[in-house]
Each structure stands twice: as structure tokens, then as C-alpha cells.
Amino acid sequence: MKSGYKFVKGKLLLTMNSEGDVIREGLVVIKDNLIHDYGRYQNMREKYFDKIIENGEACNYFEHDHGIVMPGIVTAHTHHFQSLMKGIGANLNLDDWVLKVIFPLGVQMGYEETRIAGIHNMLEMIRTGTTCFCDSHYMIHKKENMDGLAKAVDETGIRGILCRATQDMKYAPEVPDCVIEDLTTALIETEACIKKHHNSLNGRLKIGVEAITPIDCTGQMIKELHGLAKKYETIFQMHTAETFGELQTIKADHNMGIIEYLDTLGVLDEITMLIHCVWINANEKKLIADRGVSVAHNPVANMILGDGVAPILDLKAHGAVVGIGVDGAASNNNQDMFESMKSCALLHRVHNMDASVLDAMDVIKMSTIDSARAIGLDKEVGSIEIGKKADIIIVDTKSLSTTPNLSAVSNMIFSGNGYQVDTVIIDGKLVLKDKAFVDIDLEDLLQSSKKTVQSMMKSANLDKCVSII
Known about the structure:
2 domains, eight-stranded parallel sheet, alpha/beta, 18 strands, TIM Barrel
């Protein structure tokens, strides 16, 4: 077998490069963990025939007659630990849900619970085409919890950024004491996590820095954490302007909008990604774009929690980079980015009463190269270009929901879902083939997840509070 080469062929190749090239009967050549070449199959076959064929047989050759080959999906925002909490408190608003469900269950989690939750969430992502993520982990009451998530990245083979999130204020008395850190502790523990895990696993794992929200953190905490992210040239993120209540609090305390307040702290720049940005004013939309800040839009979570509608069309019109996230599995309630792409388009069409906004290619772009830009990894992933990491998926377009396939790309978004993903390659390694995991015992993981959450529910005295409806 020719060392290091893989070949991926489909009926369509969506490159998502700056030219927006779409290649019919396209072929991608992978060497080791990088994209080595790509183009029309007929041209590429002649060029690489000796590497494709050995002893009369195709080597490491992945072809799908009805497949769309495209970059792996990049999820701009999630919470891995919440994968074991989906469906609990489904009708609660954000504040009640966090205080009555997320914190009581989250504080039961140690290394093993976090590892299992991480594996569960990451596998759901991989199964539905996500190859890279940016996570927010604020259950840092046990130091080893970040290690558990790092181990999950190792075991699943996915690429991602784990952001260690912290807070030094309680926005409500019910917030557990164990998740509150003083400034010194937050800086020491976050830096230790960066030194331990940043750029590990052949570069697949990076560590980011997060001040959870402007009402959970003092201005000094926000500034110092941003400075730490700058020191290590990694992402700084915050949940920002998600609810009207958050806006009211900031206005009462500072007499300005949330983004305007963050600007006075000097933390709005190119390394900063703001999550949600629902409740922002006209000046703040321009401010985000002018400062080079990116935004993670979570349409499904915003709808489930009744947060409101983020003005992403205005943000994009100003030139801001907007990626799409799934948010936590307990506020979505899945990790299928294809569903989030469809929901994003439909939400903004009905909100603007305009069916022409956000077509299929728009939301695919937001979920690939734009999400990669938002999390600072666009030099590595998000498009099929020579020299980028070999994170590639094949989407099967032959199904009841997508046939007749008169418009393959549109049908993939508006008729299909993530479970039509057939093949996933991450960092040059095959992790999903024929819609099945290559090296993971899924049944074993599902049993571990059930057992783990049952124990957590019992410890949190929530085991009798779950409705079957």
C-alpha cells in the first residue's frame, strides 16, 4: 500500500475556498494528515494513478457515487458535559434551567463522568459530520474535569478547542460556591490547563480561555483572562447578550449596552468570540465588526430557550464573521449541525419575512470556513485547500428525503440531516465509514452514558423529577 495517501471521490466537491469552487466528479488527495491536492477526477486520476492503484486494486480509496465531498463541519459553540442532561427541564427558561438542572447535575461530575459525557457528545458530532468544535466548560469544581474532556478528544479522534470557563460572581444565590474562583486561582488554573493540553494530540486539541458572561465575572476578571488568552495566542470567548435580563443588569450597573461595556474593558479584538449576541443595539453591531470580533450564532438553542433572535444579517452586513454553533446538548437538544444550518436559514427568513435570505450555500459557509474563522482555526480547517488539515466528510444524497435529487446541495440542507453523513476523516484518519464508527464500540458507550447519568440524577436528588412526556 502506498504510504500515507488516501483518495476521496464524490459526485460533487464543495471546496468552500475563497473562490467558492464546486467541482463535479471531484477527487481529494490526502497525504498523511494534510490535503495534498484536489480537482476533477479525470485529471487527478491520471496524475495519481500509480498511487491509487496497487497490484490491480484501489488503495485507501473512498468513493461515493451519490456523495457530496466537503470540509468537515466546524461547530462554533457547544457544551460537551451537557450531553448527559438532554431532555431534563426542557420547558424552563435559561436562568431556571441553569439553576435547577445544569448546576445540580454538573457538580456531580468528576473525571470519569466528564470523559463519558465528552465521548458521547463528540461521537454525536462525528456521526453528523462535525470534525472540529469550540467547547465551553464551566464545571471546573474539580481540576481533573478538563483532563476528562481532553481524554475524550484523544479517544474519539475529533479536533477541537476546550475553553476553560470561569466566574468570580454569582448572578443568583443558587449558583454553587464550588464553581466560583477568585482571580488568582482562575489565572493559575487556566494557565496550568493551557500548559498541559494546548496544541497536544498532534495539534488536534487546543485550550481556550473564557469568562462565562459579563454578569458572572467582574471587569477585572474579564480583562485578566483576555490578557492570558493573548499571551498564549488562543481564543477568548464569552456568552454575551443572550437574554434580556442580562441586558437589564448591565444597563442598571453600567448605563450602556453589553458590547459597549465590554469595549470599555478593552477586550474586543480579533481573538475574541462572543456567543449569542441576541440583545445588542445598532451601535454594538458595528462595534463588533469594527473591532474584528467574531460571533457564534446558536439558532436552535435561542429558540428552545426563548432567548430572542440574534441580528446576524445585520452583523454580516457590517462585515462581522458569524459562525454557527449547536450549543449544549441539553439546550438544542442534539449536536446535528445540519439541523442547525436549516434552522438558521428558516429562523431568519421568517424573522425578516424574506425567503431569499440565507440559502443553502450561505449556511454551509457559516458552518465551515466562517466557523473556522470565528474560532481562529481558518488556516487549518474549514475548507478544502492544499496544505490544510485533512478533515473531510462525504454526505450521502441517495435517500427518501433527498430524492429526487434535482438540487443536491439545497436538498442536503433543507431535506436531509446529519445522519446522511456517510464518511468522516479527521486529521487524515478514517473515523466513520458507511455510517458506522471505525474504532468505537457505540453500544458500550451508550450503556456507560445511561449508567452515569442515572447515578448523577440520584446524587442530585433529581431522579424522581423527570417526566416521560
